[in-house]
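=== RUN LOG ===
request id: a7f3
mode: sequence -> structure
chains: 1
length: 246
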Amino acid sequence: MKITKMNLYTVPPRWLFLEIETDEGITGWGEPVVEGRASIVKTAVEDFSTYLIGKDPLLIEDHWQVMYRGGFYRGGPEVMSAIAGIDQALWDIKGKYYNAPVYELLGGRCRDKLKVYSWVGGDRPADIVKGVKELWNSGCTAVKMNGTEEMHYVDSFEKIEEVAERIGAVRDEFGYQLGIGVDFHGRVHKTMAKVLARELDQFKLMFIEEPVMAQNNEALREIVKHTSTPIATGERMFQDGIIKTF
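=== RESULT ===
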């Protein structure tokens, strides 16, 4: 079996999908995109296609190594997203070729069910509580919400209180039967992230996410000393793609 064609579909406002065709009629789909950089990722996939077309799609690990290690420069969010989307499409082809779900090819399932959370929007406590109620009534028992706007190196404690007010309103309404995660989106400098993380300990959160930018991982070692809440990160760790918890 050989790869014969790679089709790319840009879908507004920010998505990019890849279809890989083969000479045996099996096609695979992947999503090679990083937010706000769809056109750049598309170009990277097109560049990789000059290597992939004509190759055996089942040699997934070999192709990954060539795409990642074969160039003079490695990594970067756009390149790694292109490789990831190609990887997805190749696994899709392999699953169809062997008539098995991909998880079976990767060792088989290890869970029968998995707890998930849903996103809730709104900037004011009343909006947050209303949104959580709607999710709760639908059967959702865990939510994630925005943490804060951007914070400077030294900022007003008023911003800290605003975050606490929003989260406190949800905790008062639903108690501890609801799981709550708070996403900082890397908007907070290390000095204020320590203050905010410590202040949020009172709400017994599931996790706080990206208290600082992913490029500042060394700061997490210090922040973790100021909170007992698990820290989630990894969304923007594009080099190795591993999600880490501190």
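=== NOTES ===
Residues 6 and 20 are 5 Å apart (CA to CA).
Residues 240-246 have pLDDT under 50 and may be disordered.
=== END ===
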